[in-house]
UniProtKB/TrEMBL annotation:
<keyword id="KW-0808">Transferase</keyword>
<protein>
    <submittedName>
        <fullName>Aminotransferase class I/II-fold pyridoxal phosphate-dependent enzyme</fullName>
    </submittedName>
</protein>
<dbReference type="InterPro" id="IPR015424">
    <property type="entry name" value="PyrdxlP-dep_Trfase"/>
</dbReference>
<dbReference type="Pfam" id="PF00155">
    <property type="entry name" value="Aminotran_1_2"/>
</dbReference>
<dbReference type="InterPro" id="IPR050087">
    <property type="entry name" value="AON_synthase_class-II"/>
</dbReference>
<keyword id="KW-0663">Pyridoxal phosphate</keyword>
<dbReference type="InterPro" id="IPR015422">
    <property type="entry name" value="PyrdxlP-dep_Trfase_small"/>
</dbReference>
<keyword id="KW-0032">Aminotransferase</keyword>
<dbReference type="InterPro" id="IPR004839">
    <property type="entry name" value="Aminotransferase_I/II_large"/>
</dbReference>
<feature type="domain" description="Aminotransferase class I/classII large">
    <location>
        <begin position="40"/>
        <end position="380"/>
    </location>
</feature>
<dbReference type="GO" id="GO:0008483">
    <property type="term" value="F:transaminase activity"/>
</dbReference>
<dbReference type="InterPro" id="IPR015421">
    <property type="entry name" value="PyrdxlP-dep_Trfase_major"/>
</dbReference>
Length: 385
């Protein structure tokens, strides 16, 4: 039997071993690591809401009113007002009949895909889809097909093959992210919707990295492109730009009813604390308010500053991949930036990204100052010249 030590040694040898870093301050634009203050370019708290006073206050107030725990799964104990209000607000903001909230985004993907699909169905995923979507697809027992990243021709061919031989009641679900988590680029949503309509497939779009960033009220890429109506299942997380935790699906009432009945990560899991749901509601309200627009503007100004300072194109989202290649080199660059310039910029490696495409995953937020961005840009240019 292989020992855990042997397995860890293999990871170490391939520069793929991970270590948890101890952080001694809140996740702000600057963070304390081993006594050193680092500029934090690792967080998905794109608008800086994880430490916003109103959202913190909302968390505290809901705890006072509703307690710390929800007691059981909602199918056992019922839905408290914070759960119900959050779902109503998500549905209204996304323009759907209903929504369902899970404890986190991972549980949402896993539960939704495994509930919607079964053996005989087909799920067609973009190659760069997040691990949670792949895991949900695998768990479902459906036939799993993958199309090369954003390759519409290949997607169309797979749809053609699938529809030519599928049984009449079999479901076909296309799955993509709106903003890809490790590359920061956009999916061609309007074209994907046209294809799904042509064939009569279903479409699930994960807006994990679009929420808060894009669209007139920050609802994501679908809102920006005005194509949300063409998406059957709008998914996302409340743990990134919303600064709290939780995951959601917004869809028609029958689809949400079906998920409530069949999504095992919803049914067999204690409901999120009422404070989490209430704080997420206040965060979403803030994202859609004039203050949210200002924070979005600040984020996009920061992205422009980075583009100017590095003489690169304006990034498509808050995620900027700085490509390196070999895992060992990406780790080394990340460490050098920390040691020489007090920058926290994580290296991402296989299996999070394909082999030999290791990179620094830089995330900018509305909380960074122009000086923070310029220091980062200068250090990157200096160490990768
Ligand atoms: N989908 C995508 C695209 C993600 O990047 C993530 C988080 N890494 C998730 C889903 C999971 O969300 P959560 O962190 O809320 O579990």
């Amino acid at each position: 039997m292989r020992s855990p030590e042997d397995e860890l040694a293999e990871l170490e040898a391939a520069s793929l071993r991970r270590h948890l870093r101890a952080v001694d301050s809140p996740q702000l634009a600057h963070t304390q690591v081993a006594g050193q203050s680092l500029s934090n370019f690792a967080s998905n708290d794109y608008l800086g809401l994880a430490n916003h006073p109103h959202i913190k206050q909302a968390f505290i107030e809901a705890t006072e009113l509703w307690g710390t725990g929800s007691g059981a799964s909602r199918l056992i104990c019922g839905s408290l007002p914070p759960h119900r209000k959050l779902e109503l607000y998500i549905a209204t903001s996304k323009g759907t009949e209903a929504a369902l909230v899970f404890a986190n985004g991972y549980a949402t993907s896993l539960g939704a895909l495994s509930a919607l699909l079964r053996k005989g169905d087909t799920v067609i995923l973009d190659k760069l889809s997040h691990a949670s979507l792949i895991d949900g697809a695998r768990l479902s027992g459906a036939t799993l097909r993958v199309f090369p990243h954003n390759d519409l021709n290949k997607l169309s061919k797979i749809l053609e093959q699938t529809f030519s031989k599928k049984s009449t009641d079999a479901r076909v679900l296309i799955v993509t992210e709106s903003i890809f988590s490790m590359d920061g680029d956009h999916a061609p949503l309007a074209d994907i919707i046209a294809l799904k309509q042509k064939f009569g497939a279903l479409l699930l779009v994960d807006e994990a990295h679009g929420l808060g960033i894009l669209g007139p009220t920050g609802m994501g890429l679908a809102e920006q492109l005005d194509c949300a109506k063409g998406i059957d299942l709008q998914m996302g997380t409340l743990g990134k730009a919303a600064g709290v935790a939780g995951g959601y699906i917004a869809a028609t009432k029958p689809l949400i009813d079906l998920l409530t009945n069949k999504a095992r990560s919803f049914i067999y899991s204690t409901a999120p604390p009422p404070s989490q749901s209430h704080a997420a509601l206040v965060a979403l309200q803030l994202i859609r308010s004039p203050e949210g627009s200002k924070l979005r503007q600040k984020l996009w100004n920061n992205l422009q500053t980075f583009a100017d300072a590095t003489q690169t194109p304006l990034p498509a989202s808050a995620i900027i991949p700085w490509h390196v290649g070999p895992s060992a080199q990406a780790l080394e660059l990340s460490q050098t930036l920390q040691n020489t310039s007090a920058l926290l910029v994580p290296a991402v490696r296989y299996p999070t990204v394909p082999r030999n495409t290791a990179r620094l995953r830089i995330t900018l937020t509305a909380a960074h100052s122009t000086q923070d961005i310029q220091t980062l840009a200068a250090a990157l240019l200096h160490h990768t010249a």
